[in-house]
Amino acid sequence: MADKFDLIVIGAGPGGYVAAIRAAQLGMKVACVEKRDTLGGTCLNVGCIPSKALLTASEKYHEAKEELDRFGVDVGSVKLDLKKMMGHKDDVVKSNVTGVAFLFKKNKITWLKGLGTIPAPGKVQVEDAKGKKETYETDKILIATGSDVMNLPGVEIDEKQIVSSTGALDLAKVPKTMVVIGGGYIGLEMGSVWSRLGTKVTVVEFLDKIVPTMDEEVGKQFHRILGKQGIEFKLKTKVTAAKAQKSGVKLTLEPAAGGDAEEMKADVVLVAIGRRPLTDNLGLDKIGVETDKRGFIAVDEDFQTNVEGIYAIGDAIPGPMLAHKAEEDGMAAVEIMAGQSPHVDYNLVPGIVYTWPEVASIGKTEQQLKADGVAYKVGKFPFSANGRARAMNATDGFVKILADKETDKVLGCHILGPNAGDLIHEVATAAAFGASAEDIAMTCHGHPTLNEAVKEAALAVDGRPIHI
Fold this sequence. Notes:
The chain is an alpha/beta fold. The chain folds into 3 domains: about 5-150 and about 275-345, FAD/NAD(P)-binding domain (3-Layer(bba) Sandwich); about 160-275, FAD/NAD(P)-binding domain (3-Layer(bba) Sandwich), CATH 3.50.50.60; about 350-460, Enolase-like, domain 1. Helix content is about 30%, strand content about 25%. The strands form 5 sheets. Strands 1, 2, 3, 4, 5, 6 and 17 form a 7-stranded mixed sheet that branches. Helix 1 runs parallel beside helix 9.
């Protein structure tokens, strides 16, 4: 038997590595199991970080090619160096993952490199790349294994012509055509990257709208804006087959409600229909840890499973499959282990789509409030009436605030527009303190800033916006 630890975390993604660091800060002897050659999990290696690097780079390319002349900036002929752009992405990833490795050393966290399983409560087995197995004792185990790409029947991912988000981050050349299967966050972000670089992108979505969890009014305008950018959509359509050929990928499509099939061809197909919890190879069934039919681990309010001493967080448990949600879970879980009383408000976990314009939301949508029978007020303000947005030539979209009709308490906020992912946190902070729309409206906002659109939307809740 090898070393004994107070806590072993399985998985070094945002949830796992943050939990490990916080546990070490609280005085625990901590180890973290990770099979990759680098720390950071899917998010830092092949997810959030590299995708945002390419989103930013592709935005700058598109801006230089199509937008800068409007500001009186003539850059002449603009050329794409895809290899250099991918190099930027790789450098950003390397910087982030080496940063996590530094934090592990700083906090004296032991990295157990290999594949982790749980043979029994209080024990974690780690198998390295050569097949050597070592078992470690621990007082507590935290499962932070994250998620994996969800497969689509009839579509085999080869990461060359038929790709997941991982393959879409590493294409060797710009394809002429791409079909994105799935109109969610990941599909729209990666579709936007390649569309800006010159690919003809078509999004195929089974439902009758894209990003179906989004506030409907925001979703409809978002759909229109992406259409103006050149992305085409085939809604209420399912993909029943995709076959890679020398000349490209041949897809078979059918109406979601049933009907005649049609064929479609694309150079590259991106499968982005969602993610599933990565919990099936931990040995949970052998030790009696309860999971649902999709693989999500059942936990109580303390993140503990039905087996004492075994905990789970992030994408491995029900809830939004988001890196920042996993981080909050991880912090709270280890603080509870240490006898503290943290709290995660899942109603205030921001959802952000990093296209341009961005989309961000917290709290309830109008549809949810109606379904719950909650009387509410709406305040909206368009970016077309915001001085800073006009100066940026970024006037698409609006801010929408939902407040309780009687108390004026902020119930939700939905932003479509420039820097929406940053702007949403003003409202998140206010809502965390139980603020009313009037509280936001009465707060002095710098001029000229995009945040003034948030203030105006809060004023509009009471029917008194100034600039419209």
